[in-house]
Amino acid sequence: MIETGKKYKLKKIRGFENSDNEYYKVIGFYNFDTVICKNTCGERFVFMKEFLIDQQKPDEIYSDLILERKE
């Protein structure tokens, strides 16, 4: 369960290298599935809850998001 005031990492996308190991602190909820977060520099971001790694489910590190590359 995602909670206000706690820090979370972002899930990874299969097939893409991501060196982002930053934690994002949840500072509020926009609606049922969207959270407002800030990083250690104070920058604010909006993410869908499903993109944050839930501390109660630490093995779920990959997002279900599928990206297609068009050339």
Describe this structure in words.
The chain is an all-beta fold and 71 residues long. It has a domain at 7-51. The chain is 0% helix and 28% strand. It contains no helices and four strands. A four-stranded antiparallel beta sheet has the order 1-2-3-4, with no helix packed on it. The radius of gyration is 13 Å and the shape is globular.
Short description:
The chain has 71 residues and is mainly β. It has strands spanning 7-8, 24-31, 34-38, 44-48.
Q: What general outline do the C-alpha atoms trace?
A: globular
Helix content, binned percent:
under 10%
N-to-C span: 39 Å
Report low-confidence residues grouped into runs of 5 or more: none
**Main β-sheet, spatial strand arrangement:** 1-2-3-4
Percentage beta strand: 25-35%
Find the count of extended strands (DSSP E, 2+ residues): 4
Helix count, per DSSP?
0
- Biggest beta sheet summary: 4 strands, antiparallel
Tell me the structural class. mainly beta
How would the blueprint of this fold be written?
Blueprint: E1 7-8, E2 24-31, E3 34-38, E4 44-48
Antiparallel strand pairs: 1-2, 2-3, 3-4
